[in-house]
Write a structure and sequence with these properties.
5 domains
Length: 467
């Protein structure tokens, strides 16, 4: 599978996991009248967790190091969001705002809002961290789709129950509308995961009838659900009318039904049974032997021995559990082979980040160039300017030929191009060293070529090939 498709599959799986989680947390927050996690905060939380897992996975790190890195990243993210959301006093590096935030008087609802915010962010962070380690196979994408659909169905059922029973309408920021993008990303993910292999697919013989039956059953089920949704008011009115009629007809017969049920299931107490029970209790009380001081001491000693054994077993269990946890903390994460798909995806992801950083450096270098560039540097700037303007230097083309071609496409800048070309030829081919401080006219020419009033002309050249 190509890298672009793998990245699209990863994006689809991430969006599927994000959308139903955000819709669920928003619905719960709206039903409890508390502030939910903002959508951008949830997206950044999931992306940062995925980035840290991508850079640390396969590096043979210790588990405790991974936990510390994730704890530091999640703590920093929550501190920034809490400081900006809850109006914490003071600057972020100064931790006095955190102290004031904790000791400031709050009602229980405000404390619950902050705890819910932190737990929701932690859920998104764990989701982003698990995206890197979870295989993106077809069965896994189908499982994500099933889980998301089930939670969306439970969310809509919960909203319908509150509206029907308690006349309480949940007003949130469109969490129900996230179902449509969830299905769109699900279809994209299922299509990409189902077509990962380029081999020939053969269907198992004998399952054609089962497929027809399932298709027919799903079609009938969809028609029935649509019909019930369409005729729901009429069905509800009919059910209420039938219930009222049944209640009016069966109301005179209720006392007789109660007497019959009491006769069949009520307990029967007789005088002889109670007398025999009292005699047996008296005989058992007489037959009990009198306890002596020796039996009391033995019971006390046995109770101390039993408590000591329980304490010893608890201490051994705690020590054994601590030893297992320490071994797990000090163990190392597995090393991923270089030919693994996930490793290739991580390498391509890092390559994309490096390319983006390099592009930003080039943009900053062109926006803020050196104060006094030399003649060869000015010519290199001219080559980049021509390339981004749609006139790239051809193989074997001399500076004079390239300058003439630039002048033919941009006649308004012919003097500036000629200044830069002549200076470069004089220094490189004529072997005349010109100091950078003496290139005043050339620097003015280069500054004029980068003026925004020529951007329209350059964009037209790039898009249509002429000015």
């Amino acid at each position: 599978m190509s890298t672009i498709r793998e990245q699209l599959l990863f994006m689809s799986a991430a969006c599927m996991s994000l959308l139903w989680r955000f819709a669920l947390t928003t619905t719960i927050a709206a039903s409890l009248f508390i502030m939910p996690v903002p959508f951008l905060a949830a997206v950044f939380c999931l992306c940062i967790g995925a980035l840290i897992s991508a850079f640390t996975r396969g590096g043979n790190w210790r588990i405790i190091q991974l936990l510390l890195v994730h704890t530091l990243g999640f703590g920093s993210f929550v501190a920034i969001i809490v400081h900006s959301s809850f109006d914490g006093p003071g600057y972020l590096p100064d931790l006095t705002w955190l102290k004031n935030l904790v000791i400031s008087p709050k009602n229980p609802l405000q404390w619950f809002t902050q705890v819910y915010f932190v737990l929701s962010s932690l859920w998104f962070w764990i989701c982003g961290s698990s995206l890197i380690s979870t295989p993106r196979s077809y069965s896994n994408i189908c499982q994500r789709f099933d889980v998301g659909t089930a939670w969306f169905f439970a969310m809509f059922l919960f909203r319908f129950f509150l509206d029907w029973q308690h006349d309480f309408v949940i007003t949130d920021s469109g969490s129900g509308a996230l179902l449509i993008p969830f299905f769109l990303f699900s279809m994209l993910g299922l299509a990409l995961a189902g077509n990962r292999s380029r081999g020939h697919k053969k269907f198992i013989p004998g399952y054609k009838g089962i497929g027809i039956i399932l298709s027919f059953s799903l079609t009938v089920l969809g028609i029935v659900v649509a019909a019930l949704s369409l005729f729901q008011p009429a069905l509800r009115q009919g059910a209420e009318t039938g219930y009222s009629a049944l209640k009016a007809v069966a109301e005179p017969l209720v006392p007789y039904f109660i007497k019959i049920i009491l006769f069949l299931f009520a307990p029967r107490k007789t005088y002889q049974a109670s007398q025999v029970t009292q005699q047996n209790d008296k005989a058992a009380a007489i037959a009990l032997p009198q306890e002596s001081w020796l039996s009391d001491s033995a019971q006390e000693i046995l109770s101390y021995i039993f408590i000591g054994m329980q304490a010893l077993i608890l201490i051994v269990a705690v020590l054994f559990l601590g030893w297992l946890v320490s071994c797990w903390f000090l163990s190392r994460s597995p090393v991923i082979r270089a030919d693994d798909d996930r490793r290739q995806f991580q390498l391509s992801f890092r390559l994309v980040i490096i390319q983006v950083i390099g592009f930003l450096k080039q943009v900053l270098r062109r926006i803020f160039p050196k104060r006094n560039p030399a003649a060869d540097e000015l010519y290199s700037y001219l080559l980049g300017w021509g390339q981004y303007s749609g006139v790239q230097q051809r193989i074997g083309e001399t500076p004079i030929e390239y300058g003439c071609r630039l002048q033919s496409h941009f006649p308004e800048l012919s003097d500036e191009v000629q200044h830069l070309i002549d200076t470069f030829i004089m220094q490189v081919y004529g072997e005349n060293h010109i100091p950078a401080s003496a290139l005043v006219q050339e620097q003015i020419a280069w500054k004029r070529m980068r003026h925004p009033r020529y951007w329209k002309m350059r964009l037209k050249m790039v898009m249509f090939g002429y000015v």
